[in-house]
Amino acid sequence: MTVPARPTHAETMRGLNLALVLEQIARHQPVTRARLSDLTGLTKTTVANLVSSLETLRLVASAGPVREGGRGRPGAPLSLAPGPVAGLGLEVNGHYLAACVLDLTGAVRQREHVRVDNRGRDAQVTVDALAALARRVTARAGDDGLTVAGTAVALPGVFVEGRVNAPNLGWEAVPAAAMLTEALPAQAHGVEVDNEANLAALGELWYGAGRGAGSYLYLSGETGIGAGIVVGGELFRGAHGAAGELGHVVVDPGGAACPCGGVGCLEQVAGLDAVLRAGGIDDGEESSESRLTELVRRLDEGDGNAHRAINAAGRGLAIALVGAVNLLDPDTVVLGGLHARLGPWLIPPIEAAVTRGGGRLRARVPALLPSALAEESAVRGAAGTILSRVLADPLSIG
Amino acid sequence: MTVPARPTHAETMRGLNLALVLEQIARHQPVTRARLSDLTGLTKTTVANLVSSLETLRLVASAGPVREGGRGRPGAPLSLAPGPVAGLGLEVNGHYLAACVLDLTGAVRQREHVRVDNRGRDAQVTVDALAALARRVTARAGDDGLTVAGTAVALPGVFVEGRVNAPNLGWEAVPAAAMLTEALPAQAHGVEVDNEANLAALGELWYGAGRGAGSYLYLSGETGIGAGIVVGGELFRGAHGAAGELGHVVVDPGGAACPCGGVGCLEQVAGLDAVLRAGGIDDGEESSESRLTELVRRLDEGDGNAHRAINAAGRGLAIALVGAVNLLDPDTVVLGGLHARLGPWLIPPIEAAVTRGGGRLRARVPALLPSALAEESAVRGAAGTILSRVLADPLSIG
DNA sequence: AGAAATAAGTCCATCCGATAGACTAAATAT
DNA sequence: ATATTTAGTCTATCGGATGGACTTATTTCT
């Protein structure tokens, strides 16, 4: 269906085949050249050629001779090199800053998580703190023999023409990408910025609850509610990159007004503040973390207000998800953040509603899973973005 | 991001470049080889080579020497050949059968529309009638010097493992693709079957209201309500091809039960039957066509029931569309079928609601347009599907 | 009108990268 | 030890894009 916009010449062909071989190595490692020839449909000769390029790029290395006792000459097994290429993932959230470095094999080589209240802090101050964190982590990764090939940052906001609106941070039209490029170490050139829900969805896809799924909806619930939509192993971003604003789907036509301008938005019944308030937990001075823990305690105790709050949230989520499932046809739904914590109470009623609503239309009802990476989904996804680019275009690291 | 699953070799490269050149000819015709070289980034030599292949495939021909008074030697302008390659589009609907033949330039070379009530008719009978229609149209196209390169069929149903469930036709698990392949003329080998809303969305995309849009939601409203989702010029089908079931989005949590198993589905307030019933128009013997005309008459007259009915439908559609727009981020919404007819009454309130709901989050509120092709969207889209395949892979026509 | 300039299109030698198949290497089976 | 089997390398070849020289058709300058 899609025709490439650019011409294809011999080098393009080589790039595509390099990526193809590298991808198969990643998927089947350790793997011999002979097997790669079968997997890719390329000749043994060509595979040997491509592999030798990948070796000089230091993306691939021969792993120990893992034999499995066949007949003829044993093959030389190849695997992704655990260095020097690495991806750096960063995250800014209302309540913390986080960073992690992944090597090509997807292993976490560095991680750091700093609790700090970023809500309402000056954007420049937050960016500087993030840059400092990035420098620390990058330095430690360097000591470990790793070179960061790129950086991606997860932000809880919507991107409009290169500027970020992040209500939960108090950011309005902040040129985050530019500020970060400025503040980050030079080797992190070409910083990418993306929505937290999108990157968390990718994190779960590559390293967490979505690994088997191939196509799903990741629900990112904190103060705001967003969704990352994965279809056929790729993120669905919509026309302007603003897809997935599940928090403002209407779930209660007669309900309360929302700051977004609408009425009865999901966020108003299933967002963090709404749930805590309805659960009878005061704003107070405490962190939302400890207030959430308190809510969970009351739920365990059987407190009536807490249960009414979570039932309302469950009903809202069910309505929104029935709609999303009907529109998007995913095969799994992953609950993250707040809703992963509340999974034990939320999942059964939502599952029932999704099965009922439109259930007769569909061959299979999507499964509902809690996030597997908890607060790390977004940083892992961010770092993975860099790795996935390297895998898709090995020559890009020059 | 995406790595091709298949190896790339010299011939693959050629195929891609052929498609690239052909696509540019389609987009910029009439166009000279020199200009194509600029547009594609391929050398003059290569372009000349590729064009000569396209000429022997009879996909491209030199159009009259349209000069624009430049200096040097004038170029030989190339255009898509208006034959012999053509695509055949078919449609089965509750109330009619339709067919059309498009040549490569997208011109309608044959069309036929047969009013017939297919609801509850035996599927085999309907398929045979469709095949007869296809044969007639194909024969006439043949007299006109056209060869049908493929056939696509639009059905108002959901596809589950190759079988169609089409409640509005009374079809359950009908192996439509197989039956059609059997019944249709041999040259139509490899018949494709797709959802009516999807093909109508493509029809509007290529030849109708979506031509400028690039990314939109097409609302296909008759007895059932479906949506075709176009993003970046491509159809979004979801994990199992069942995306776009907008009719079963929940818009009235306390509302009526729907045969799908859910409660308060959009179809129950904005589907054809629901609107007619609420508008006080009896079932009777008349066709839904004439009943709809009657509703429009009463709306013009200012009848209270009719207005209440359409207001309820508008509210439901607004809720569903606010959700869909938030999730999918299209830049346009196109109303088709029933809702195109009722556009004058529906569009203003929906537009207001979509602007309110989530309006502050988005840079631009999507435009709302009525369908430009009316009942022809789906057949045109179906035929266009064939043409788009030829354009994307010129060698496929051998 | 003739010459110079300009642009389009063709021809040819070359280069890049994949291929097929012969050849070498390293293991097991007899 | 020898035959067999499988892995990996080497070499000639082929398909297809390239760059630059060449031819052709038209406008502009003199």
UniProtKB/TrEMBL annotation, chains A, B:
* SUPFAM superfamilies, per the entry: Actin-like ATPase domain, Winged helix' DNA-binding domain
- One Pfam family it belongs to: HTH_IclR
State the superkingdom: Bacteria
Q: Where in this chain does the record put each HTH iclR-type domain?
A: 21-61
Please state the span of the N-terminal signal peptide per the UniProt entry.
none
Name the Gene3D superfamilies for this protein.
Answer: 3.30.420.40, Winged helix-like DNA-binding domain superfamily/Winged helix DNA-binding domain
**InterPro entries for this protein:** ATPase_NBD, ROK, Tscrpt_reg_IclR_N, WH-like_DNA-bd_sf, WH_DNA-bd_sf
**Recorded family membership:** Belongs to the ROK (NagC/XylR) family.
**What is this protein's record name?**
ROK family transcriptional regulator
What organism, scientifically named, is this protein from? Answer: Yinghuangia aomiensis
